[in-house]
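Ops channel
N.P.: pipeline sanity check, posting one input/output pair.
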């Protein structure tokens, strides 16, 4: 399993634990997240690009993986993700630059999955 594959597996395990042990909280969180990320004044694609940029500057490998995947599913292109990386580096400097490695891992994993069907 790739590093990003392991990261996503670990996230899903933690998420499953919380869903099992704190169902009401997780249901509320999921509802909030889904409401925020659905089309509104900004479309879902744009919101996922913003979330990805924030994930990079927050230096969260889990969030990077989640939002690269969700962005690709929302129709975001590889080139658009690279543009988000550039803005995140502008705003987050060297520490954000180091997390571009996580973006690459996520792109490698999720673009391959999309190509396979």
């Amino acid at each position: 399993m790739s590093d990003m594959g392991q990261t996503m597996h670990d996230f899903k395990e933690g998420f499953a634990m919380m869903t099992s042990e704190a169902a009401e909280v997780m249901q509320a969180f999921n509802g909030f997240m889904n409401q925020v990320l659905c089309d509104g004044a900004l479309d879902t694609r744009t919101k996922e690009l913003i979330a990805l940029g924030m994930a990079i500057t927050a230096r969260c490998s889990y969030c990077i993986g989640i939002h690269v995947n969700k962005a690709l599913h929302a129709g975001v292109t590889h080139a658009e993700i690279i543009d988000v990386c550039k803005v995140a580096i502008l705003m987050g400097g060297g520490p954000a630059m180091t997390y571009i490695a996580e973006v690459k891992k996520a792109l490698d994993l999720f673009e391959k999955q999309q190509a396979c069907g």
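N.P.: looks fine end to end. The mean pLDDT is 96.
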